[in-house]
Design goal:
- The protein contains 11 helices and 83 strands.
- The chain is mostly beta strands.
- β36 and β37 form a beta hairpin.
- The C terminus is likely disordered.
- It is found in: Membrane.
Length: 1235
């Protein structure tokens, strides 16, 4: 919160001695002249040299709360600072860098000498000392500063604890509030572990605040359970790197069951189980009420080029150094010590988080000593190195590792220079080596040969030398706090950045923001997917997790969500005082279900209530006796087929209840089984979560119920679109809030060469997505670091009036743009730059705030952070913008296969499979049939061509005396029988085409286009085609030229001699030829035998005879004789046919059950079931005995195996499987058994 009474100027009244600096250009440029708006001396502070190691320091005399700072340049000069860092401290050492809320470290400074740049500090600083560190300055001048600091006095009681002491407070129970408790404290420490606070209540409840490894843990036990359990124990973690000897604030608020836990700026809310409350003051041990200031001067190695070079003055004949370090990086040089008598030196470095040390000598392979593990955890670790004569030892955190060095006669004597953290440039001529690069992190307590290094002397330039260091400050920060990895992504970090591991989250991207799954079955369908189980993420990049459900891809995409009680459930012995309640739990949470239902065009759930003297409503007073509850948690008394306000059943709406006095069959209260069945289709109440039944307590009273899965179809968001008619037209929506993570996705189609899809402005921040040119889509944005632009260029034009998909994402790590399947483009975010996207204007879609450069065309399915904008609703009230958009087939038409035609719909499209031999949503499901012995399918083009000249059937192109000069024939087959007739086309003039398998297994195609000539025969005898494998045939005739393709690889082109035209086509026969035909002998033999096996996807031009026979859509001139059943030809011999099927066997809707016998044996009395089972068992045993006797009698007559056949569709494949085992060995005269 901003303290409006805390803005007094604090610097102007300070004495001269309160100002200090790293250096001064002259006595008139000293730090005491750095007061804002003063012209004393030279009019401001300037250092002797202008570099990034200079600083200006203010001592406020005591701890103050600082709420703002202001800067100016040197009066009337060209000296001003353009950016600077602000540091603060309680003691004048161990400085901490001030960090703004959205992670900016530096402040922008001045653009001239005299104007004042003012910054509010949110949060404020509580400190005695402030230090300004210039980073950049006017290149035509030098560093020059005048400053002011605003704030007020800050006083608080302090206590100093030494690890063995404690402070005890005893509560006055009367003063305790039972409703609200607040604990607030600030602490600072150099220790990473310790208990800050522990409180025990009278009921065994306790609360503990504990520091572990620099993180703060809050443990709460409500004391309700005898043993700790997950419900009574709360363990929360907040904060990081809290052992930095700087003040950290802690706030615990307990209101009822709600607890807020805050550490510095990070907050956690949770709901506590049970009761507890939070704390007369006493102390023991060494407690002082002032704060000690332990001196420890850290140094920060800011980059991989940083180093600290120190001489060895000890004169000892050994190398000896100790220090502490902390870092996030896995690798980097910690120390290189030069050796005087031996070329080379001793290396101490981090590698993969382990400490390694060796003796480096040019031309020799080093042998490493390894110590420690996981040392890149951000904690302080102590290291000591000792090398004397030919022995080297290293200790990490007190654990020693040592080795003898094989040096021969040479021995280690004292080194020349110690290089900490890295090596200087080669131009300095040092021997220093850094195999894994420099160290980025902090060091402290550095000593050489037992003597502590004075870093102030280093800073002043009187000891050693350095580069790119920050002395007297540890600049480490935890980049995983706050954790920007979304959806459970794991955060890991290095010194300069963080990384999100999105494995097993269901999300991807730099911050695990973008879902890998589609938002609906409709979206999967339009990627060309078939029926199956899919993960759905209903809110895209929103907080809801993806879940698994079944997508049934019919003409529309049905979403099928199962629950845990799909079986029939019987209910007895209930009354209003003792009701029955059945609960339904779904495979998804209620929030996931709600998001799925909201997206759908329509949802329904079939509910059946079976009743025998069990009513739904009390006829006397109209009170409900049974009811159900949906996701709104409200009682519903309407039943399947009725709308919510009518409270009727299906029969009441249709007027066919068994008793016309009532609106439900069950309310007739008959002593016999009946039911009320219907679809619950009011979306806002679905799914059903509970059913309550109260009327099964009377004599002979029973009920049962069955609830189907939740079925939803379509996706309103996927097709939600708007058409923009002019460049000045646009839709406007509320401001887009995507401060840390923003993703925008949509489809567009246009014929225009450019236009802005979307724009949202802030004061300086903005986002814009536009078609820059016919081949370029551009995403531009600014989050306070200056404008950035990302473009994707396409090799083809985007303005082709087809749908194109755009997806942009911006997060704290990067921005990305993807268009269609083109390579995505990314732009990394600048290190330590602004991260918050702050917008405040309306969101413009299809245009801009200036009404210029607008988009002409259609935008569809616009989603911002997973939420769909309703373009159609807004377009209905906006001039020059039309709701909806036509023309989906230009983009999605390619999904319609095998001759299917794409047809437009007001919402979306569908594939018309009328003239295709296939069915399914994309005309990709082949229609196959098993043909039994002697069976046939005959498609009659016209019974008598003279009577059918005006026919309007879809055999219209085969009219009477019209000449057929071309045809395309495609089909697949599988058989083991020879000879076989696969396909026969005849005409009224004794012309024909036959496709047969001859007795020797060769495939023959016979064309007779002139009744006076012998047929043309094309023979394929390269293999036995009756081998039980699936074969694909394509025949394409253009007049006298025939092109034939077998199995996609064998091709032949032949020229016919018998003619070029079919005259008056009569019929197409699959299987056995039943009527006498004037054909050649081979065709006649095959025609008499017919076909036994599987035929699939048979098509003659646009006629599909199998489809007409098995899926009749209107009266077709087709005749089926014998045993022809639908069956898959895909299954290979010896494999389960269903294992190759992708589609799962979920019904679109539950099947209907007869009213009078609703449940077969399912809800008859138990005794009837048991009696029935006994009867069935006896009958089966008798059948088996009779069959065994019959088989024994026939055994002597047959020496070959019998092929068992079934008329059941599911076992049709068994015929082919058994035939494969006895290839062509079955005799024509053998008898067949049907079991």
């Amino acid at each position: 919160m901003w303290n409006y009474d805390c803005d007094d100027p604090l610097v102007s009244a300070l004495p001269q001695a309160s100002f200090s600096s790293s250096s001064e250009l002259s006595s008139s440029h000293g730090p005491g002249f750095a007061r804002l708006n003063r012209r004393d001396g030279a009019g401001g502070w300037s250092p002797l040299v202008s570099n990034k190691y200079q600083w200006l320091q203010i001592d406020l005399g005591e701890r103050m709360e600082v709420t703002a700072v202001a800067t100016q340049g040197g009066y009337g000069s060209s000296n001003w600072v353009t950016s600077y860092l602000l540091m603060f401290s309680d003691s004048g050492w161990n400085w901490k860098q001030y960090r703004q809320e959205d992670s900016i470290w530096g402040f922008s400074g001045n653009a001239n000498a005299d104007s004042v740049v003012y910054y509010r500090l949110q949060p404020s600083i509580k400190a005695r000392f402030l230090r300004f560190i210039p980073l950049e300055w006017n290149p035509k001048g030098r560093i020059g500063m005048r400053i002011e600091v605003f704030g007020c006095a800050y006083r608080s009681e302090v206590v100093d604890l030494d690890g063995k002491s404690s402070l005890l407070y005893r509560f006055d129970q009367k003063s305790l509030s039972p409703i609200k408790d607040i604990i607030s404290l600030k602490f600072k420490t150099m220790q990473s572990d310790g208990i800050l606070l522990h409180r025990e209540g009278p009921n065994g409840d306790h609360i503990t605040l504990q520091l572990r490894r620099g993180r703060l843990f809050l443990l709460i036990n409500s004391g309700e359970a005898k043993l700790p359990s997950t419900s009574t124990l709360v363990n929360l973690t907040l904060g990081s790197l809290l052992d930095d000897q700087h003040w950290h604030s802690v706030l615990i608020q307990h209101l009822g069951k709600q607890v807020n836990f805050t550490v510095d700026e990070h907050r956690h809310h949770f709901h506590a189980q049970g009761e507890f409350n939070l704390m007369n003051l006493d102390y023991e041990g060494n407690v002082s009420f002032s704060c000690s200031q332990p001196q420890s001067m850290p140094v920060t190695f800011l980059s991989s080029r940083s180093y600290l070079a120190l001489p060895d003055f000890s004169g000892e004949e050994e190398v000896s150094a100790t220090f502490q370090f902390r870092t996030w990086n896995k690798a980097g040089l910690l120390l290189f010590s030069e050796l005087q008598l031996i070329s080379g030196g001793i290396l101490l470095f981090l590698s993969d988080g382990k400490l390694k040390s060796n003796l480096y000598q040019p031309g020799k392979l080093p042998s490493d000593i390894t110590a420690g593990v996981g040392l890149n955890d951000g904690q302080w670790h102590s290291v000591s190195l000792s090398a004397k004569k030919n022995h080297l030892s290293v200790a990490v955190d007190g654990q020693m590792a040592s080795a003898a060095l094989l040096l021969g006669p040479e021995q280690i004597y004292s080194g020349g220079t110690y290089y900490f953290g890295g090596c200087p440039d080669k131009s300095f001529g040092s021997k220093c080596k850094s195999p894994l690069g420099g160290f980025q992190g902090c060091m402290r307590l550095i000593s050489i040969s037992g003597k502590v290094v004075d870093l102030i002397s280093v800073q002043q330039g009187s000891l050693g030398n350095f580069s790119d260091l920050q002395i007297d400050s540890c600049g480490i920060s935890d980049r995983c706090l706050p954790n920007y990895c979304e959806h459970g992504g794991e955060c890991s970090q290095s010194w300069s950045t963080f990384h999100c591991n999105c494995t097993n989250t269901g999300y991807r991207g730099a911050t695990c923001h973008n879902s890998v799954y589609e938002q609906s079955c409709e979206a999967y369908k339009h990627r060309g997917n078939t029926s199956g189980f899919y993960y759905i993420d209903s809110d895209g990049s929103g907080p809801l997790e993806p879940f698994l459900l079944y997508c049934n891809m019919t003409e529309t995409a049905w979403t099928i969500i199962q629950h845990n009680s799909s079986d029939l459930t019987k209910v007895r012995n209930t009354n209003p005082e003792n009701p029955y309640a059945g609960f339904f739990e779904y495979v998804a949470s209620m929030e996931q279900l709600q998001a799925t239902i909201n997206r759908a065009e329509h949802c329904e759930q079939e509910f059946t209530y079976y009743c025998k003297k069990s009513r739904l409503v009390n006829k006397q007073d109209g009170t409900p006796l049974s009811w159900w509850v949906g996701r709104t948690n409200e009682t519903q008394t309407y039943w399947g087929g009725s709308s919510p306000d009518l409270q009727k059943c299906t029969c009441g709406l249709e007027g066919n209840c068994i008793d016309s006095q009532y609106y439900c069959n069950c309310d007739a209260d008959r002593n016999e089984w009946t039911n009320d069945t219907g679809l619950l289709a009011y979306k806002e109440h679905l799914p059903v979560t509970k059913i309550v039944i109260t009327d099964t307590g009377r004599l002979h009273s029973e009920a049962a119920y069955k609830l189907g899965p939740l079925l939803c179809r379509g996706d309103r968001s996927f097709w939600n679109s708007a058409s923009f008619d002019t460049e000045a037209s646009y839709l406007h929506f509320p401001t887009f809030h995507g401060e840390l993570s923003a993703d925008v996705s949509f489809f567009f189609k246009t014929t225009a060469s450019s236009g802005v899809f979307l724009e949202n402005l802030g004061i300086t921040d903005f986002i814009r997505i536009e078609l820059r040119s016919p081949t370029v889509v551009t995403f531009s944005f600014d989050v306070g670091n200056g404008p950035f632009e990302i473009s994707v260029q396409s090799p083809t034009h985007f303005n082709d009036n087809q749908w194109h998909h755009v997806r942009v994402e911006r997060n704290v790590k990067e921005a990305s743009l993807q268009v269609d399947q083109l390579t995505p483009k990314t732009q990394p975010a600048p290190a330590d730059g602004h991260v918050l996207l702050q917008l405040n204007s309306q969101l413009f879609v299809g245009g801009t705030a200036t009404r210029q450069r607008g988009f002409l065309g259609c935008i569809r399915s616009l989603q911002l952070n997973g939420m769909t904008l309703d373009l159609e609703e807004r377009a209905q009230v906006t001039p020059e913008v039309q709701p909806g958009c036509r023309g989906h087939c230009s983009s999605y038409g390619k999904l319609c296969r095998n001759g299917g035609k794409c047809r437009e719909r007001p919402i979306g499209f569908f594939c018309d499979c009328t003239f295709s031999a296939y069915t399914g949503p994309f005309c990709s499901n082949e229609i196959s049939a098993y043909f039994g012995s002697g069976s046939s399918v005959i498609y009659n083009f016209q019974e008598n061509y003279l009577l059918n000249k005006n026919s309007s059937s879809h055999a219209a192109s085969f009219h009477g005396d019209m000449k057929l000069s071309r045809e395309m024939i495609k089909f697949s087959f599988r058989t083991t029988r020879t000879p076989s007739l696969l396909l026969f086309v005849s005409s009224f003039y004794k012309e024909y085409l036959s496709v047969i398998i001859a007795k020797n297994g060769s495939l023959q195609i016979r064309y007779k286009l002139n009744k006076y000539q012998e047929p043309d025969v094309v023979n394929f005898d390269f293999k036995n085609m009756a081998d039980g494998q699936l074969h694909h045939i394509m025949i394409n005739r253009e007049e006298g030229v025939v092109f034939i393709e077998i199995d996609g690889n064998t091709r032949r082109q032949v020229h016919l001699s018998s003619g070029t035209e079919f005259s008056a086509v009569k019929s197409l026969v699959l299987g056995r030829i039943l009527e006498h035909s004037d054909v050649d002998q081979e065709t006649a033999l095959a025609g008499a035998q017919g076909f036994t096996g599987c035929l699939s996807a048979v098509q003659l031009s646009h006629v599909a005879p199998l489809k007409a026979a098995l899926h009749p859509s209107h009266p077709d001139p087709v005749t089926v004789t014998g045993h022809v059943t639908e069956s898959s030809c895909m299954a290979q011999p010896g494999t389960d046919a269903t294992s190759r099927e992708r589609t799962h066997s979920f019904a679109d809707h539950s099947g209907t059950i007869d009213d009078r016998e609703p449940l077969a044996n399912a809800i008859k009395s138990d005794s009837a079931v048991i009696g029935g089972l006994i009867a069935v068992v006896i009958f089966i045993l008798l059948c088996i005995t009779a069959i065994a006797v019959r088989i024994y009698q026939q055994k002597r007559l047959y020496k070959r195996s019998e092929a068992k056949r079934s008329e059941n569709v599911d076992s049709a494949e068994a015929v082919l499987k058994s035939e494969l085992n006895i290839q062509n060995a079955v005799n024509e005269n053998q008898k067949e058994y049907f079991f």
